[in-house]
Amino acid sequence: MKKFTRMTLLLAAVAMTGMVGCSSSPKHESTGQYFDDTGITTKVKAAIFQEASLKSAEINVETFKGRVQLSGFVNSQADINKAVALTQAVSGVVTVRNDMRLK
Question: Domain 30-102 carries which CATH code?
């Protein structure tokens, strides 16, 4: 019976460690959030790439907990506005921070 109790306690400890290790904090994402943010980043980059008027190589996209940051140097204010609008239309985007600058 002692072996069963020890094994049960060990399994419970491992399970609790796994749950705590995958949780998020204000500065760190959980594993699930990381994959969600990777998907959002990919969708935003694809939307920007498909827009012929934008040069996707000039716009950097970073996502943290659904908050997307756009940065880079673009040719016009219209390009900035278009990139922000495309980003806001992507599902899962919570907010957009525009750090793009004009060349």
Answer: 3.30.1340.30
